[in-house]
């Protein structure tokens, strides 16, 4: 196995070198990098051309220029662009911004896409499945730049206008409530009656909540409050203990509920600390919460339920922490909204320039800037994950060992999680790893639409100016990501599949 | 699939459908007609509602774009072209109306400028149709070139193995390492000004890697099958094995690849044109139109919607057709013990 | 018939007690045949009773009537063999017992386990039965074990699904079961993955998994079909041994008459979704009263037969389950078929002491010396062995065989 990975690594390095050579030669032949200088008045033309020729080594053959670049790249010196600006500095800024853009979007797309795909596979041919499958086709066919522009118009400009007087018309409330109720009901596998009750209950609850929020102007001045935090935390505890064990008052549920209660109490206890914390404090609190949850799971779970109890407690802790975080962010929303002239959802760039505010307001600033590009990226890339997960799960659910698992009398939850999904993970992980490497491509378009100056502008600028060095910097990162993630795919494959691991 | 597709094209009876003596059909209850493989595939395809809807939609888009403004020197039925300006009618808004009068709408008519006019008064319907024609042409050329190249390379790598395979697969690896948008943007800048056909060709030459991987995998698995072994054991030549046995078995995956490649090409071309690197003036394409008018989003939103809708219509219909074809060629994927 | 079973009168053997002779760690080489005659006899108690079971599947081409009314009773410690060609409904009916049929299946009738109707139970009660009281062994051991979990985990999981015990204890039981089914070095093998086992070993693991909760019924669905002939006998012996170990009854589903002959107390022959002959294995084998059974027996090579004797396969293929022929579904392939057979479907009728057959002409079979002789292809001995089974009655054999050969040319 190790031999295999090392061999793959060596081959990948050679492949990568060949690719850099190919890209460099093409980038050097895009056109005349001196075109703009030839327009200059005669007196400055000579000098400028000579200077750029010298800087770009245009007097040397392409192959020599490639090796000059390669020699520099080995020392992590990526040279300068045609105007003499160091690429290294540009790249570091650009990479930071692009990662900020694609990281959250990619994780969100993977989690949502895989979850939707798995659920629709488990409910094959249901209305949920048909909706998800059809939507996947539509999203799959959407041009990213078109969606991005559309979101700018509706999710930002119109939404910001609406926030000035945030009331919802009754028919919109009804529509949203019906949609949410329908979605929730279609998740359940029970008889028609229970499903109808679930549909009615969810629809009514959503409608009432929306009506109250609309009437009280909640959207302009949002927040959750201890009640909602407590409710969500307990619901999470219940949900996770059912997912990892069963719907009964056993040690798993006990430990998840204890974790949730500790979380609710500490949200009150740490109120002062969370007023305007340092980032390190927030991370520290999260680590503390996880440690406590693990401890609770360990002690309450006992010998029989240790593993599911710890898992359920950890998940509950993360969910509770997220709700508390959300609550804090929402409380700051009104202040933030005021500080940006009542137009909170931003359409341009990664952050408000020179913004000054609390920890929460800074986070909100980043989030409101990330919201639209993330939404666009998620919508467009969600589809391929969900389609692939659905196909994989359908295939896995048909395997003989899943039938064996059922024949053993395992609960359906264990059949799906431990047997079907665990096997489905092997191809899904591989696809995801291959696919992550391509996010830089999507980022180029997204950055252009939303006016981010990051990896995309590095590439586009380089191509427009016929300047190889910025193009190579883009390729070093994006192509490097392809190689690295292909390696990760291979390793993940071996890790997940004992047939490969042990051979 | 391998077993059933084996008889594709030849008119043998499919397994499981023995042809009983005609006179005893009814008595035996075995009156299922023997179907050829291609009939079975067609039947399964036609049963896929999305695929049929996709066929109709794509057919509609193709016929509309060609018949309306004509093709080359042949004139179409639409009386305006995409070059001449005219006075703004209704401030350039679309005059298309589809809601009948008895429903309180403006009646069902096209009007003077069904898709509206751009800021200098050009007919936007004619312009969108022109963009649709070009986008379809590029997508089709790119899809076919990518599939043919990918199939040749994948099949050669899968069938001959050894040194040839490793060389071909390393080339494929090198191509995969380069992000599509980077590769496509560079070739588009280098050759895009030579006309849309050339642009389609070069885009095809940088996007064949997926097809090559798919075809190679399929060929690799088929050449291990018993019937290939059998053919080889009776001294069948390599050429005959490829044509008679391997090709019929990979034809399904190749046809599906064409559709996937075409829908990817529509989106790739429009993204490139949007970035200003695809189709160059005086030609135009749907992506290019969106790019030209994207600043007019707030004032003239129709300039943004129409080309987008046509991009989606093309990509969506091709995707649905591809899904239907995959199900038709490989029913195993679909048959689920629910 | 009374369906309320008496309480289990024999105490279940304590498998942790490791009775003598059961623990032969490396006993693979020491091959001692364990036959049905050596095993414990059946009790009167009825553990499983299937009444008028029908299963249908709606498909695009029409309603598939996979099972069209099956009745049988399985007594404690009994081995009941169910024989039939593929598509005869034998597997589908057993899947119905396990509740493993796809959701679109339409199941009617009653399946009584110790007097309680499984089909009327809630999903949770059904699940409590699966793997705990009724266990199943599947055909293909290569694909029936999950490749990503260790054998020990998969065995322990079966225990943990029904018993609230620590994992450690479940693993200990798993180890003991591996010992019992004759897997050497059980302790080490617990941590191995299925791909590290041979086919026969995997089927032993499947047997261990089936008996780990001391079930009352073991359904073995073609348990040896995918295995080498040499391994087949060992697996069957092992199955008989462990049956006695846990006092279970076995439902042995197979198309292989040889398996039934050595293993089953009683045999049920199925054709086109219905039982066509039921009786003690000896009765069914030596005095078949249904031409289909006779045909099946004639298509098996026999060591006792004279060397030059040809096999006598049943011509034709099983009928479509969507459009069954009128009358007896076997009539198109039956050498004895008359107009009556093509008009009315015969019901199961007594053909002897606890022996039933569904045939209008079972008396003609009773009168014959060698019932399989009806299937002899007169004057055309070569056709039987080589040609693809063609449809039609023997009178037309010559014609149909020729057609069959020309048509199948491409395929061969």
TrEMBL record, chain A:
It is found in: Cell membrane. Residues 95-489 form the ABC transmembrane type-1 domain. It comes from the Bacteria. The keyword Transport applies. It is a multi-pass membrane protein. Its main location: membrane. PANTHER family: DIPEPTIDE TRANSPORT SYSTEM PERMEASE PROTEIN DPPB-RELATED. Belongs to the binding-protein-dependent transport system permease family. This is Peptide/nickel transport system permease protein.
From TrEMBL, chain B:
It comes from the Bacteria. Keywords: Cell membrane, Membrane, Transmembrane, Transmembrane helix, Transport. Its main location: membrane. It is found in: Cell membrane. The chain crosses the membrane at residues 51-74, 134-159, 171-191, 197-215, 246-268, 303-322. Residues 1-13 have a biased composition (Polar residues). One of its GO terms (cellular component) is plasma membrane. GO terms for biological process: transmembrane transport. Residues 1-26 are annotated as: Disordered. It is a multi-pass membrane protein. Residues 132-322 form the ABC transmembrane type-1 domain. Pfam families: BPD_transp_1 (PF00528), OppC_N (PF12911). InterPro entries: BP-dependent_transpt_permease, MetI-like, MetI-like_sf, OppC_N. Belongs to the binding-protein-dependent transport system permease family. PANTHER family: D,D-DIPEPTIDE TRANSPORT SYSTEM PERMEASE PROTEIN DDPC-RELATED (PTHR43386:SF1), OLIGOPEPTIDE TRANSPORT SYSTEM PERMEASE PROTEIN APPC (PTHR43386). This is Peptide/nickel transport system permease protein. It comes from Streptomyces aidingensis.
Automatic annotation (TrEMBL), chain C:
It is a peripheral membrane protein. Keywords: ATP-binding, Cell membrane, Membrane, Nucleotide-binding, Transport. GO terms for biological process: peptide transport. One of its GO terms (cellular component) is plasma membrane. InterPro entries: AAA+_ATPase, ABC_Ni/Peptide_Import, ABC_transporter-like_ATP-bd, ABC_transporter-like_CS, Oligopep_ABC_C, P-loop_NTPase. GO terms for molecular function: ATP binding; ATP hydrolysis activity. SUPFAM superfamilies: P-loop containing nucleoside triphosphate hydrolases. Belongs to the ABC transporter superfamily. This is Peptide/nickel transport system ATP-binding protein. It comes from Streptomyces aidingensis.
